[in-house]
Specification:
- The chain is 21% helix and 26% strand.
- It has 2 helices and 3 strands; from the N terminus they run βααββ.
- It has a 3-stranded mixed sheet, with no helix packed on it.
- A hairpin with a 4-residue loop joins β2 and β3.
Length: 87
């Protein structure tokens, strides 16, 4: 199940971030220029752009982050696609 598609929220482990929750997130970092969408893109356009990149390319790197706040723990698996170029 996808809970969020769009810009990455600031996820600090200070315990006051609404996006921080008990669970695991899978984050796909793709530069906006590579996605070819603007900040005003509709959710279906954002989803289609991300799926196109993820389905057709391997990530350049990945990282596992664990963030602990006062009341919440979040594990984030980050897949970075910074090696792609605009053609």
């Amino acid at each position: 199940m996808m809970n969020h598609f769009g810009l990455v929220p600031d996820n600090a482990a200070d315990g006051i971030d609404d996006a921080l929750f008990n669970g695991t997130l899978f984050r796909f970092d793709v530069p906006q220029a590579i996605l070819g969408i603007g900040l005003d893109a509709k959710p279906n356009e954002v989803r289609a752009a991300f799926l196109s990149i993820v389905e057709n390319n391997y990530p350049s790197s990945n990282t596992v982050l664990e963030e602990r706040g006062e009341t919440k723990i979040e594990t984030t698996v980050v897949f970075k696609y910074y090696h792609l170029y605009i053609i």
